[in-house]
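Next comes one such specimen:
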Amino acid sequence: MDRQFWALSIGHFIISMNEIDHLTSIIRLDILEEDLSKNWNKTALTVKLKKQITALSEADNNYPELIKLLNEALELCGMRNLAAHGTFALDGRLPPTEGKESQYSLYSIKHEHPVTKEEIEMITKKAIQLSDSIAERIALISMSKNREKRASKGAA
């Protein structure tokens, strides 16, 4: 059923974007070694990502792979807002094909065109992949930083 597909896709997409949002806290704590401000959890994901991209670019190690992934996540933020706050309804632009169900779409006045089934499927896969890749990159950076700390303690 079309409605179930949309529910699963939107749910997976929002969960993956929320995972990315949570990962920004881990980046701030573990990589940038900054405390979380009182307002951090209230800050919009786009703002968090932009701040972290800038901070990581200015850091000694630069972290180009993580910056690339965060830029890709930044591109999905508008779609996150649409998925969370947009309107999900039957798409009445085209008559239903005989023997097939009516098609749904996701739309908002702030977006030029409704999101199609194919588009939500593509961005959902992208968000899941990004969340996994960002988490993996954080783990690799954290392991490397821990190795460096142990090596510097051993040298002292």
